[in-house]
Design a protein that fits this description.
Helix 2 (64-80) runs parallel beside helix 3 (94-107), helix 8 crosses helix 10 and helix 9 (236-259) runs antiparallel to helix 11 (293-306). The protein has a domain at 15-234: Aldolase class I (TIM Barrel, Alpha-Beta Barrel), CATH 3.20.20.70. Strands 1-2-3-4-5-6-7-8 form an eight-stranded parallel barrel. It has helices at residues 32-40, 64-80, 94-107, 124-138, 157-166, 180-189, 201-204, 217-232, 236-259, 265-275, 293-306, and strands spanning 15-19, 49-51, 85-88, 111-115, 143-146, 170-174, 194-197, 211-214. The longest helix is centred in the C-terminal third of the chain and has 24 residues, at 236-259. The protein contains eleven helices and eight strands.
Length: 319
C-alpha cells in the first residue's frame, strides 16, 4: 500500500466516495484505455476515494476475467493518483464472493464493499455466516457492507450491532435508503461504524452520517465535495443553497430518466458522467437499456436552465 494512503478504519472512514463506471466496447468488452482515464479523472477533484462494483459499475455483467482486469486497473490507477479504493465483491454465493475478495486483496484494495447475496433473502443466521466468511477471506482488509433493498432485506439495528461487535474489520456501510431515524438507530447499536448515504449530507451528517457514496460526483465532483465540506464543518446556512441545487438536479434532471424514460441507475450514471465531460460512453451491458447522446444533451440543458451553479467547467461551452 502506498505510504500516502492511510489504512481505512472505523475512525477515519469519511467523506465523498465516487463510483467508477466501466466503459465497454461495441462488443461489450472492457475498454481498458478509457477505464484508466475514468479512474485517473478523479485525481485532484477532492473526492476522498473511489469504488467499483454496485449498479454503477455493473458488477453483475462481469465474468471472472473482466472482474480481475477491472480490479487490477482500478487499484493501480487510483493509487497512482493518491486515492484509496474500495473494490466491490458482491456475488450470488459465498464461494464466488470469496473468490472475488481474493482477487481484490491481491490487487491492493483498501477495502471490500459488498452486499448480501440477493437471489434469495437471507435469514439472520445466514447473514452472520456470510459476513464471518467474507471477513475471514479478506483478513486485514476492511469491509464495507452495502445495505441495499436489492438484497431483499434490511439489517435491523440489533443484528447490525452484533455484526459490529463480532467482526472488527467491518468498518462502514453504504445505505442510501435509510432515513435519518434509521441512521440514528443503527448508530445507537454500533456507534463507531461509519454510515454513508448518497449526496444527502445536509440531512445525514447532523444525524451522525460520515459522508456519501455518490453518483452526482460523476457530473461535478468538486461541487459535491464542496457541499460535503460545508456540511461536515457545520456551516449549514452556507450549505443550504447548494444542497437545494443538488436536490433539484436529482429530482428534475435525473429521476425523470428513470421514471419517464425507463432507464436504470447504471444508464443514468453514465449519462451524467458523459455530460460532466468524461468519455465513458453511454453503452450499458445488454439486456439493459442504454442512454443516448440526446439524454446527455437534455441533462446539460436542464442544468443550464435550473441549476447553473452545478454546471461542470468541461460542459460550459457544450450544447
Amino acid at each position: 500500500m502506498p505510504a500516502k494512503i492511510k489504512r481505512l478504519t472505523r475512525k477515519n472512514l469519511h467523506g465523498v466516495w465516487s463510483a467508477l463506471i466501466v466503459p465497454w466496447t461495441d462488443r461489450d468488452e472492457l475498454d481498458s484505455r478509457r477505464f484508466v482515464r475514468e479512474v485517473r479523472a478523479y485525481g485532484g477533484t477532492g473526492v476522498h476515494g473511489v469504488y467499483t462494483g454496485g449498479t454503477t459499475g455493473e458488477f453483475y455483467a462481469q465474468d471472472d476475467r473482466t472482474y480481475e482486469r477491472i480490479t487490477r486497473i482500478a487499484c493501480e490507477q487510483a493509487h497512482e493518483v493518491g486515492l484509496p479504493i474500495q473494490i466491490g465483491a458482491t456475488a450470488l454465493s459465498t464461494r464466488t464472493a470469496r473468490q472475488r475478495i481474493r482477487v481484490a486483496v491481491r490487487a491492493g484494495a483498501d477495502a471490500i464493499q459488498i452486499a448480501l447475496p440477493m437471489w434469495l433473502e437471507l435469514k439472520d443466521d445466514e447473514v452472520k455466516a456470510f459476513v464471518r466468511a467474507i471477513a475471514a477471506e479478506a483478513g486485514a482488509t476492511p469491509l464495507v457492507l452495502y445495505l441495499t433493498s436489492r438484497s431483499k432485506r434490511k439489517i435491523e439495528p440489533g443484528l447490525f450491532g452484533e455484526l459490529a461487535a463480532e467482526v472488527p474489520t467491518f468498518i462502514g456501510t453504504k445505505d442510501t435508503g435509510a432515513d435519518v431515524a434509521q441512521v440514528r438507530r443503527l448508530l445507537r447499536a454500533a456507534p463507531d461504524i461509519a454510515i454513508f448515504g448518497g449526496e444527502d449530507f445536509y440531512e445525514r451528517i447532523p444525524a451522525g452520517g460520515r459522508g456519501g457514496y455518490c453518483s452526482i460526483t460523476g457530473f461535478n465532483a468538486p461541487k459535491i465535495v464542496e457541499l460535503y465540506r460545508l456540511c461536515a464543518a457545520g456551516r449549514r446556512r452556507e450549505a443550504r443553497p447548494l444542497a437545494d441545487a443538488v436536490r433539484r438536479f436529482l429530482h428534475g434532471a435525473l429521476l425523470p430518466l428513470v421514471k419517464e424514460q425507463g432507464l436504470w441507475d447504471s444508464a443514468v450514471d453514465r449519462i451524467q458522467r458523459v455530460a460532466g465531460g468524461v468519455d465513458v460512453g453511454v453503452r450499458c451491458q445488454s439486456p439493459y437499456r442504454s442512454g443516448t447522446p440526446a439524454h446527455v444533451a437534455g441533462v446539460l440543458a436542464w442544468c443550464r436552465e435550473h441549476t447553473p451553479e452545478l454546471l461542470p467547467p468541461a460542459a460550459a461551452g457544450r450544447r
